[in-house]
């Protein structure tokens, strides 16, 4: 890694001030992606502004029909929290399947969604559950938050405070891992909510996406069999060593059916 | 004397220091005044170097020196030598390109070292390396051996007309062709043995020091064979007198073959340590391990079997193309030839075999021995072909093997491909494996899995390997440029404690325990009083190191020979002390000398004391002291063999393969420590299963870029990829070494891959899949199902 300044933010205002003062400064939350980039000399920030001290951003709290999770909440805490298990067990499954124990003890919800890796778990979780991202400036619907590969709607000096997950009637999350990295090859969050059924897919495309045809079919009949015959177009899906677009398209169907089964179990 | 520890699962003595973090690996060693090296490596697979600008780097903070291939050449430093010369079908020596430790004129693979920066800190060296201006002229590259051998392919070495290193063959081609012409059945398979990256947990590292007052060099390095490194570096590369070079390989964290070889960094650091008059250290980053540790495998083969009407093998014909990489690594030429084609008889009586091997240079990392080295490739060919024969002729997989096994009363057995198997009982391991694997209940399990939407299959691999490398005269006739004996020294101290010096090297094998068991048993001295010393050319008289499952069979035998000398001398000392003829002194083989027919005895410690305090001692006929050394050159290879049975379930929707059972019953000859043997089998199986299901080193053929350059894309086996193994042995003692041992370190990696692949093919037969290439990743399995016409199943 290259040399950089390190500043541990004392509060949210301090973090924003540091960020605003230096164009080359970068925030670090759990560091599970950024540290690798630094080690490989793929990133060269002038200053790292560490959010690790902002305890006010960590926490899980049930608020009526919603579950509020702070941006600095670690994956392990989401996976283990009784409130998550009670309200949205599929979200606990999702968080418990990220990386390994070390990653889950360091990585954060805010860091993951701000990075918007196409092979990350949380984007499907947020979009599938119809969550809202709360920032220092506004509230952004998950559908509008993830804008492209490693791209989000966040402004340059905008900090994620947390995510509000509406509690669904039922939801299921299933991940098919890429064999080497165990990131997502294809994962699907299926949720039946008051607003309707949502099906969101991570890993298959350059950015998380919904499958309206599946949502319509499940709204009529929330069973795995309802998805039979629905084909996802491989056009535009990711291609790499581990999967062709055709295989990813096929897996979306398989994994979506399993996610529905998980929601029903 | 306590009970013998031979055959007992004695806990590994070395584990205590490893588990407490008290191991001493190369990177743990620090020398006063040391500087740090960083190697600048080529980002191109093939490029001409028009110039290297080092001025800015040389001025950077903390930089001691920036050195390039030109500096090496100016100092007369030679190229890295190849330790094995293959003679081709026309009687000509293989093509042997120059291999400069730092590139000169051209780079030939991604990772080829271009310059070394030596600085006060590692980060200063790395920062400065970014200031080096290398003027590359990128050239066309070729990564696949098949394309490298085509007309017009980019040439790897300008001094040769083409990329063919050699064409080599074994067996009588004409006789084999004739057998095929008259065969009742012929069966063929086309297979690829995927390239692998070794991935030892400890990356390669080295520290070199020059001591001017003594004109002496010391190199600490992650080596499986420090004496070989000393020999190669002193005689061929640096022309340092051998007695002025000490090579130390301290604790080493895994090798799997990749640390046999003499690497460029070792030579460059040793040379540079004198130039800069500082100790110089280097530890590879993991990315460097991926691009610069010698890779393994990478064969493409067509294999054919001719059979009679009853399924008896009549002849086998094999055509293999082997990828050597850009340069010849230390033992690379022997791997796809001597260590491969000689194993093609397997456990079978196939009377005629012909194999032709074409080796190619490519713009990739050099390929050399990796756990099994040629023998996994051979076993994969044989066992995939035998499996295909069973399927083609409708003969049960166990039955077609039994029908062709060399029977146990046929040993010693001369194969048509040079080897002479001394002993074995293949039916015994197959019987035991089938029982342990509950083959009888398989069809019921298959049906049950089918009811869950899973396709279950069972696959066999009855393998053989040749270990205990090797009779030096035979190896020499086949092109080895080194002997393959081993040395051992046993030193009894006056207090009855023992130090054993062995040329074998332990980097995970547990020699400090196993070898101590052997010595303790033979001398009647407790294991705790026996120390095993290895890995230091100044302490150990000589050695050829550890590879090819040779340590106990060859290194252990050298120790046994030294023990024989100790006991011979001790008998004479005892005779003097007991005032009888030496002929009247009996040794019980466990530490006690006795005057025949009496209760007058002496123990080994009593004799050792007398040897060093020779007051009552035959000084006129016998030297004082009790310290003996021996060399041992084996008379034959050893032939471990076994039966592996794998059971898998395939999810036809996703293509994911799960190994649900894996049984390995091996014949390793006598077993000194069954716990260590079992551990070796487990590790080998994990690597073999890794090759079959997970691991693949992938290059982009056109650019020569390594696609799988990190763990994000190179799939290492993890614990949850593996089942709980069922392992056992059915041993027939080796007939030609005193311990009766054969070797066990590579068996798992050799036997497992075809068992796994055969199981998946068995599972997917109902979907019309009859062939699939390693690694059997979900996407490949799914594609095979699609291509076979199996629609979205279940």
From TrEMBL, chain B:
Residues 11-21 have a biased composition (Basic and acidic residues). The keyword Zinc does not apply. Residues 20-140 form the Aldehyde oxidase/xanthine dehydrogenase a/b hammerhead domain. Its EC number is 1.2.5.3. Keywords: Molybdenum, Oxidoreductase. It holds the Pfam family MoCoBD_1. It is an enzyme of class 1 (oxidoreductase). Residues 1-21 are annotated as: Disordered. One of its GO terms (molecular function) is iron ion binding. PANTHER family: ALDEHYDE OXIDASE 1-RELATED, XANTHINE DEHYDROGENASE. This is Carbon monoxide dehydrogenase large chain. It comes from wastewater metagenome. The gene is cutL.
């Amino acid at each position: 890694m290259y040399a950089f300044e390190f500043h541990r933010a004392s509060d949210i205002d301090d973090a924003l001030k540091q960020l605003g003062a230096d164009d080359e400064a970068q925030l670090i939350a759990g560091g599970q992606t950024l540290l690798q980039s630094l080690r490989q000399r793929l990133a060269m920030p002038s200053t790292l502004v560490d959010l690790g001290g902002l305890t006010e951003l960590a926490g899980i709290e049930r608020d009526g029909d919603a579950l509020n999770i702070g941006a600095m909440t670690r994956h392990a805490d989401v996976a283990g929290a009784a409130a998550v298990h009670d309200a949205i067990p599929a979200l606990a499954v999702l968080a418990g399947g990220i990386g390994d124990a070390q990653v889950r003890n360091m990585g954060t919800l805010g860091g993951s969604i701000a990075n918007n890796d196409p092979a990350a778990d949380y984007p499907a979780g947020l979009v599938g559950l119809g969550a809202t991202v709360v920032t220092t400036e506004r509230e952004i619907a998950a559908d509008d938050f993830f804008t492209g590969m490693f791209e989000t709607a966040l402004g340059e000096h905008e900090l994620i405070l947390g995510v509000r997950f509406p509690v669904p009637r039922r939801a299921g999350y299933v991940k098919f891992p890429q064999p080497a990295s165990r990131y997502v090859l294809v994962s699907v969050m299926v949720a039946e909510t008051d607003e309707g059924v949502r099906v969101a897919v991570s890993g298959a495309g350059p950015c998380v996406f919904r499958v309206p045809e599946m949502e319509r079919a499940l709204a009529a009949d929330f069973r795995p069999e309802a998805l039979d015959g629905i084909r996802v177009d491989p056009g535009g899906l990711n291609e790499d060593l581990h999967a062709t677009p055709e295989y990813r398209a096929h897996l979306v169907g398989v994994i979506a059916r399993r996610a529905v089964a998980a929601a029903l179990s | 004397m306590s009970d013998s520890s031979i055959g007992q699962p004695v806990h590994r003595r070395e584990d205590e220091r490893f588990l407490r973090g008290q191991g001493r690996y190369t990177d743990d060693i620090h020398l006063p005044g040391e500087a740090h090296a960083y190697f600048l490596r080529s980002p191109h697979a093939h490029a001409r170097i028009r110039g290297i600008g080092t001025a800015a780097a040389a001025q950077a903070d903390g930089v001691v020196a920036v050195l390039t291939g030109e500096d090496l050449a100016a100092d007369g430093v030679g190229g890295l030598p190849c330790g094995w010369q293959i003679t081709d079908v026309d009687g000509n020596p293989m093509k042997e390109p120059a291999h400069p430790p730092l590139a000169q004129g051209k780079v030939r693979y991604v990772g080829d070292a271009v310059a070394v920066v030596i600085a006060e800190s590692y980060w200063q060296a790395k920062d400065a390396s970014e200031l080096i201006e290398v003027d590359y002229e990128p050239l066309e590259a070729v990564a696949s051996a098949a394309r490298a051998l085509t007309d017009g392919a980019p040439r790897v070495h300008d001094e040769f007309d083409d990329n063919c290193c050699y064409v080599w063959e074994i067996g009588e081609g004409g006789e084999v062709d004739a057998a095929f012409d008259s065969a009742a059945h012929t069966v063929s398979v086309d297979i690829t043995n995927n390239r692998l990256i070794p991935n030892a947990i400890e990356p390669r590292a080295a520290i070199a020091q020059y001591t001017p007052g003594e004109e002496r060099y010391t190199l600490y390095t992650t080596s499986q064979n420090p004496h070989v490194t000393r020999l190669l570096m002193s005689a061929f590369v640096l022309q340092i007198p051998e007695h002025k070079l000490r090579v130390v390989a301290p604790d080493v964290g895994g090798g799997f073959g990749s640390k046999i070889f003499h690497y460029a960094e070792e030579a460059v650091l040793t040379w540079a340590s004198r130039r800069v008059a500082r100790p110089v250290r280097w530890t590879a980053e993991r990315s460097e391990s991926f691009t610069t540790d010698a890779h393994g495998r990478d064969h493409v083969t067509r294999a054919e079997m001719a059979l009679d009407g009853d399924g008896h093998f009549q002849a086998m014909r094999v055509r293999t193309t082997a990828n050597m990489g850009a340069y010849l690594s230390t033992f690379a030429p022997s791997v796809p030839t001597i260590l491969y084609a000689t194993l093609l008889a397997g456990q079978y009586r196939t009377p005629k075999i012909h194999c032709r091997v074409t080796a190619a240079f490519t713009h990739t990392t050099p390929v050399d021995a990796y756990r099994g080295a040629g023998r996994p490739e051979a076993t994969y060919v044989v066992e995939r072909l035998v499996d295909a024969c069973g399927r083609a002729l409708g003969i049960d997989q166990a039955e077609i093997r039994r029908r062709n096994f060399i029977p146990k009363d046929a040993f010693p057995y001369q194969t048509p491909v040079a080897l002479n198997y001394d002993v074995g009982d293949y039916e015994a391991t197959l019987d035991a494996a089938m029982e342990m694997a509950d083959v009888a209940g398989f069809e019921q399990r298959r049906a049950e899995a089918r009811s869950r939407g899973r396709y279950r299959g069972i696959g066999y691999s009855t393998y053989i390997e040749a270990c205990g490398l090797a009779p030096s005269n035979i190896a020499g006739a086949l092109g080895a440029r080194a002997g393959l004996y081993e040395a051992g020294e046993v030193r009894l101290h006056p207090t009855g404690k023992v130090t054993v010096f062995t040329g074998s090297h332990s980097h995970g094998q547990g020699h400090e325990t196993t070898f101590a068991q052997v010595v303790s048993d033979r001398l009647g001295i407790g294991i705790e009083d026996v120390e095993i010393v290895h890995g230091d050319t100044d302490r150990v008289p000589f050695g050829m190191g550890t590879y090819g499952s040779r340590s106990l069979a060859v290194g252990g035998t050298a120790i046994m020979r030294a023990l024989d000398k100790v006991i011979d001398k001790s008998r004479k000392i005892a005779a003097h002390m007991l005032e009888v003829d030496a002929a009247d002194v009996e040794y019980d083989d466990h530490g006690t000398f006795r005057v025949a027919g009496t209760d007058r005895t002496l123990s080994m410690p009593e004799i050792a004391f007398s040897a060093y305090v020779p007051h009552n001692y035959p000084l006129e006929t016998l030297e004082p002291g009790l310290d003996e050394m021996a060399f041992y050159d084996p008379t034959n290879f050893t032939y471990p063999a076994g039966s592996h049975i794998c059971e898998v379930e395939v999810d036809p929707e996703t293509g994911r393969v799960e190994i649900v059972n894996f049984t390995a019953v091996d014949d390793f000859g006598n077993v000194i420590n069954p716990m260590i043997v079992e551990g070796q089998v487990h590790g080998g199986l994990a690597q073999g299963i890794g090759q079959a299901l997970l691991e693949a080193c992938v290059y982009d053929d056109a650019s020569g870029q390594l696609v799988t350059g990190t763990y994000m894309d190179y799939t290492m086996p993890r614990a949850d990829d593996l089942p709980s193994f069922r392992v056992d042995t059915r041993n027939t003692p080796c007939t030609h070494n005193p311990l009766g041992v054969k070797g066990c370190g590579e068996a798992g990696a050799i036997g497992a891959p075809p068992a796994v692949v055969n199981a998946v093919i068995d599972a997917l037969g109902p979907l019309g899949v009859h062939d699939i290439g390693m690694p059997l990743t979900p996407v490949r399995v799914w594609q095979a199902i699609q291509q076979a016409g199996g629609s979205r199943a279940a």
